[in-house]
Amino acid sequence: MKVVITGITGMRNRGVEAIVIPTIEGLRTYNPSIDINLLTRSPDYDEIRLQPYEVNLHLESKNLTTKTPSISRKKRLLSQVFPLYKLPKPQPIPTSRIIRKASAIIASGGDIFSPEYPITPHLKPLKLALDLGKSIIFLAQSISPYRTDEEAESWLEVARQAKLITVRELATYKYVTEILGLSTDLVKLTADPAFLLKPSPDTTINNLLESYGIPKHRPLVAIATSQGICSYASIWDQRKHLTAWQKVVTTILEDLDADVMIIPHVQEVRAGNDDRLIATSLLRALDYNPRVHVAGADHSASEFKGLIGRCELVIAERMHAAIAGLSSGVCTLAVGYSIKAQGIMADLVGEDNLQGGLLISIDDFLNPDLASQAVHNAWKQRDEIKTKIQDKLPYIQKKALSNFEIIFNTLKH
């Protein structure tokens, strides 16, 4: 069996890596010989990151070009002789054999079909696959409410023809079944594969912490700052964003007497989405306080997860940094701008705990006083939340693994 996984923006985004690696492992749990192909925007970098997993990487843009087959001379003559004979409308087909030879196309990517992003590029390979009669599957998606009927219909046009849609939180499940009207036979509630990501070994993490000069005598708080999040807020203001983080870090250092580790979870080539930039700006604003550390090397998602797992608290604008905290049993405060943060957090810690301070909107976070208050609230309940997470985590991980059982059961029919 050959599958093509789409929606891969690249492993420079450790959230993408955190989804892709458990997906590869999950697919091979049920079919060890499966031929896995990834359409990605950065195959050169991703090849380095995914080398141990023996998958085939293909440049996305090269493999989504199409050609229109020519109409035969015989059919053209028939149309001239018989006025009622209509020439068949030629369907564009991919110039690449990757999609043409695939058994199924799996759309990964988490929330790439939400209206916060342009969804058309991610729909293209799925439409090409449908034109070729291939099965398409949406894997562990979050779908925020679409702003217009036209937006919703552009996704539904493809989604209705899918073989299977799995969604990673209850809020999306209710939206796509109750509001958008998709059948519960088609849509299944699972969990994000990133909950299955294995952290790096303890010895590796011990050495990393020591190499970054992080002391053992004070608690450690991880913060996953996002260079791109302000573009999703109602007010674009990078200055206010930086000021809020300064207040948060000062609160951690002075009120909680903890050290801070900055996790640049996304390190894309595009400056607007490279978290190392805001990490550096924050360091400068704090005059390079020696108790604030940046895990700035080219770390894998597993290394970041191992580092996050050593913390007392995680404050994350990046969803998969938050999932790294949650799946490590660490109290996590998520800064959200879409359905994914609320949905995933609620499924694990409960809606009541979200209302109690484990989720803050980006608009509220830009108010330094509200941001600082949220940190205090999370810190006070961290032990209680840790217990709740550890109780619920096996169930969530089982749901995450069920993605792959459902996929193979679906493809059998």
UniProtKB/TrEMBL annotation:
The keyword Transferase applies. Keywords: Transferase. InterPro entries: Polysacch_pyruvyl_Trfase. The keyword Flavoprotein does not apply. One of its GO terms (molecular function) is transferase activity. Residues 17-338 form the Polysaccharide pyruvyl transferase domain. It holds the Pfam family PS_pyruv_trans. This is Polysaccharide pyruvyl transferase. It comes from Crocosphaera subtropica (strain ATCC 51142 / BH68). Coiled coil: none annotated.
